[in-house]
Amino acid sequence: MEKLSERFPYKRVVVTGGAGFLGRFIVERLRALTDVEVSVPRSADYNLVEGADIKRLFAKTRPDLVIHLAAVVGGIGANQKNPGKFFYENLMMGVQLIEQARLHDVKKFVALGTVCAYPKFTPTPFREEDLWNGYPEETNAPYGLAKKMMLVQAQAYRQQYNFNTIFLLPANLYGPGDKFDLETSHVIPALIRKCVEARNLGASFVEVWGSGRASREFLYVEDCAEGIIKAAAQYDDGDPVNLGSGREITIKDLVEMIARLTRFEGEIRWQTEKPDGQPRRQIDTTRAFERFGFRAQTSLEEGLRRTVDWYETAFMARGA
After folding, report:
1. CA–CA separation, 293 vs 235, rounded Å?
2. Which of 224, 217, 240, 248 is nearest to 296 (CA)?
3. Is 46 a residue of the active site?
4. How far is CA 196 from CA 73, 183, 227, 262, 304, in A?
5. CA 11/CA 101 separation, integer angstroms
6. What is the residue-level pLDDT of the chain in tens, covering all 320 positions?
7. Considering the entire predicted model, what is its pTM?
8. Which residues on adjacent β-strands are paired with residue 248?
9. Pick from 215, 212, 217: which is nearest to 279 by CA?
10. CB neighbour burial string for 287-319, b if at least 16 within 10 angstroms, e if fewer
11. Nearest to 23 by CA among 211, 258, 225, 291
């Protein structure tokens, strides 16, 4: 980060979602840089679905860089319950933020997409060229398509207005500070909570959605933050870029690893009537390394160990 601080080209940065899981790590790194002023709009002050609030935010902060992380998002269950909400709110945030950034002479806009935007049956590893070769997995298609519209807008605005927007596609994130609410959390925090609570209660089993055969790729949150800041500083092209570890694991193997790290020794019961979601996810990370030198540094086991330790100390100490 010391070398980056010497050449970071933006002084006033707005980070939407900067108080969230990923955002906190990005804001911390940006504030450690020399002469960088970071603004984090809070939902109590700005509703980013509303264009008037976005105008007010940009008029006040006058950013030359916007990093858009804010999203309405959840796991498979939350996506199934809220397809309309997830589509509308994510679409309106992205479309209006990019348009107002252009109108307010923002120098660069970093749009964060999602691996959910890829077609359901994309060959692995997912390459950026495959983004339009089919429809996303049904349970999260509204969310994935809403986020992918930022790529369409980014490329259109680059062509017509020469507006510098980049589009990044992170793999599934995990790490300390994640959401551990079983109704809305993603697979890793949900599994960690289930296993820790089952261990503490002396339960003989935990239930897990699906068959266990689906695979996922996971990116440690601090690695993702590093990749986004590198891209913000160095990448200025219209091609979308994956951010990931380049390694996949089946949900069955993931559950077994989490059970071992949480010291849960009971039975894993698979709820095979529940959906698996997309059959496989592993992304090609070549472009991120070639374009701005990003490569994930944290192994899945080490990242999971840190996440379990954080959950046990931060949540269980308070009886959560």
Report:
1. 10
2. 224
3. no
4. 24, 17, 31, 6, 13
5. 16
6. 445 545 799 999 999 999 999 999 999 999 999 899 999 999 999 999 999 999 999 999 999 999 999 998 766 677 788 899 999 999 999 999 999 999 999 999 999 999 889 998 889 999 999 999 999 988 889 999 999 999 999 999 999 999 999 999 999 999 999 988 877 678 899 999 999 999 999 999 999 988 999 999 999 999 999 999 999 999 999 999 999 999 999 999 999 999 999 999 999 999 999 888 778 889 999 999 999 999 999 999 999 999 999 999 987 566 54
7. 0.91
8. 217
9. 215
10. bbeebbebebebebeebbebbbebbeeeeeeee
11. 225
Dihedral-angle region of residue 133 (phi above 0 means left; psi in -120 to 50 means alpha; beta otherwise): alpha
Q: Which entry of 10, 143, 174, 311 is annotated as an active-site residue?
A: 143
Q: What is the 3-state secondary structure (H, E, C) of the chain?
A: CHHHHHHCCCCEEEEECCCCHHHHHHHHHHHCCCCCEEECCCCCCCCCCCHHHHHHHHHHHCCCEEEECCCCCCCHHHHHHCHHHHHHHHHHHHHHHHHHHHHCCCCEEEEECCHHHCECCCCCCECHHHCCCCCECHHHHHHHHHHHHHHHHHHHHHHHHCCCEEEEEECEEECCCCCCCCCCCCHHHHHHHHHHHHHHHCCCEEEEECCCCCEEEEEEHHHHHHHHHHHHHHCCCCCCEEECCCCEEEHHHHHHHHHHHHCCCCEEEEECCCCCCCCCCCECCHHHHHHHCCCCCCCHHHHHHHHHHHHHHHCHHHCC
